[in-house]
Amino acid sequence: MQAMILAAGLGTRLRPHTLLRPKPLFPVLDQPLLLRIIDDLRRAGCRRIVVNAFHLRQQIASLLTGAGDIEIQLEEMELGTGGGLRLARSRFGAQSVLVVNGDLFHNLDYRLIMEHHRQAGNDATLVLHDRPPHNKVLTDGDRNILSFTVEAAGSVVAGGNQPLAFTGIQVIEPALLELIPAQGFYHSIDWYRQLIELGHRVRGLTVSGHCWSDIGTPEEYLQLHGRLLNARAERQTPFWLGPGVVLGREVCFSDWVAVGRRAMLGDKVQLRRCVVWDGATVPAGTVAEDAILW
Predict the structure, then answer these.
(1) β-strand 138-139 against 239-241: which pairing, if any?
(2) Which of 95, 96, 31, 18 is nearest to 57 (CA)?
(3) Which long-range contacts (CB under 8 A, 24 or more apart) does 222-230 make?
(4) Residues 38 and 59 sit within 8 Å (Cβ to Cβ)
(5) CA dist 250 to 185, 204, 254, 267, Å?
(6) Entry pTM
């Protein structure tokens, strides 16, 4: 299995946090998203992984230095999802390529996705799910993708087909990357529209009953931690402390809190529904709620 992780985005909806670190390096319970995706790919049997990077790319390069099975594609300009794939074409063999957005947290099985793609004989498979109000991908009864811009997303449209949302996971045949323009910014949706017009088999795989978050906003990032820690509370407390955390006197946590490794919290800090990043210093007397602290 070969895969590419798209990790070059700017993360504008997460500013100012993405001015400090790129979104794929945001920690979830003290592990960067990117490393979690890589671990899941390796467990699925992936032996070649390409990661592209543009925004704060040296942070990603530093994190992955020494990982023998990881190829890092450092991009000097913003290329878009399609442009990044096109630049990576020479890195792939003839086998299908699993492509994963670098900002995902999920429990979907990559092996089952790849197996479905092969058995269906698709040129491209987009993994879809029901996610109002983001349901904009329309398929027909045979799961052929018809459109990416459904009006009134989430409603049932003509023919009775309900639009679905893209999970950020796809499988493609690498030969088709030659159809992406060789220069400049290019969105993969434009490439898919071209493939559909040319008659290629671009189809959806619908999934349900899974854990999934794309951490697109600070609210979604915090909500993911809340779900994880509240589920953990059935066995332990909903408070996560990484190794080397230093707590001052009379520190108070409520609801749920995640504190990354080597963080230092001063005296009488009060946190509720907060994520403290690794290495952060929270001054004495800080009172924070629904916040990302770094």
Answers:
(1) unpaired
(2) 18
(3) 222/273, 222/274, 222/275, 222/290, 222/292, 224/28, 224/105, 225/28, 225/29, 225/256, 225/258, 225/275, 226/255, 226/256, 226/273, 228/28, 228/29, 229/29, 229/256, 229/257, 229/258, 230/256
(4) no
(5) 52, 53, 13, 6
(6) 0.90
- One-letter amino acid at 42 equals R
Domain boundaries, the chain: 2-213, 218-293
Identify the architecture of domain 2-213 in CATH. Answer: Alpha-Beta Complex (3.90)
Percent with pLDDT over 90 in the chain: 76
pLDDT in tens, 50-68: 999 999 999 999 999 877 7
Give 147-164 pLDDT, tens digit per residue. 887 554 445 555 557 799
pLDDT at residue 154, as a whole number: 47
Residue 230 Cα to chain centre, angstroms = 22
d(CA 163, CA 111): 25
Amino acid identity for residue 144 in this structure: N
